[in-house]
């Protein structure tokens, strides 16, 4: 399992949000460097955002969720095109799980375990 994982739940429908494209990036200078990409599975989870055995470094990271395409596929109007979640890793040996609870007009996230 990747050191960074996510789980996306569609709170408006009360079920996992399958098929959302997720990118993982790390801040590099004034921009962002792509580390990995995945789609949420049938349970709304991404387990492999980083290559196997990839080591994290302390720094600023960003997960970007392509929720616009997801809601289009559900034939649901949404306010959000994408949701970026920017976070800091201070302990690279730890596991970082970032759930996203999303609906067409709101979202929340937290650090899970």
Structural domains: how many: 1
Order of helices and strands: EEEEEEHEEE
- Provide the CATH superfamily: Transthyretin/hydroxyisourate hydrolase domain
- The percent range for helix content is under 10%
CATH architecture: Sandwich
How many distinct helices? 1
**Low-pLDDT residue intervals, each spanning 5 or more residues:** none
What is CATH's topology name? Immunoglobulin-like
Whole-number mean pLDDT: 95
Backbone shape = globular
| N-to-C span | 13 Å
* Main sheet makeup: 5 strands, mixed
Can you give a write-up of this model?
The chain is mainly beta and 113 residues long. It has a single domain (4-109), classed as Transthyretin/hydroxyisourate hydrolase domain (Immunoglobulin-like). The protein has one helix and nine strands; from the N terminus they run ββββββαβββ. Strands 1, 2, 5, 8 and 9 form a five-stranded mixed sheet that branches. Strands 4-3-6-7 form a four-stranded antiparallel sheet, with helices on one face. Strand 3 (21-28) and strand 4 form a beta hairpin. 21% of the residues are buried. The model has no long low-confidence stretch (mean pLDDT 95).
Map the helices and strands.
Elements: E1 4-10, E2 15-16, E3 21-28, E4 31-39, E5 45-46, E6 59-65, H1 67-73, E7 83-89, E8 96-103, E9 106-109
Parallel strand pairs: 1-8
Antiparallel strand pairs: 1-2, 1-5, 3-4, 3-6, 6-7, 8-9
Attribute tags:
mainly beta, 113 residues, 4-stranded antiparallel beta sheet, 1 helix, 48% strand, 5-stranded mixed beta sheet, 9 strands, Immunoglobulin-like
């Amino acid at each position: 399992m990747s050191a960074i994982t996510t789980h996306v739940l569609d709170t408006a429908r009360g079920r996992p949000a399958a098929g959302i494209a997720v990118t993982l990036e790390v801040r590099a200078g004034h921009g962002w460097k792509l580390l990995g990409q995945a789609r949420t599975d049938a349970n709304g989870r991404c387990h492999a955002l980083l290559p196997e055995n990839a080591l994290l470094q302390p720094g600023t990271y960003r997960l970007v969720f392509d929720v616009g395409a997801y809601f289009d596929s559900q034939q649901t109007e949404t306010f959000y095109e994408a949701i970026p979640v920017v976070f800091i890793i201070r302990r690279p040996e730890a596991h970082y799980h970032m759930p996203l609870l999303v609906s067409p007009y709101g979202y929340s996230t937290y650090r899970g375990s």
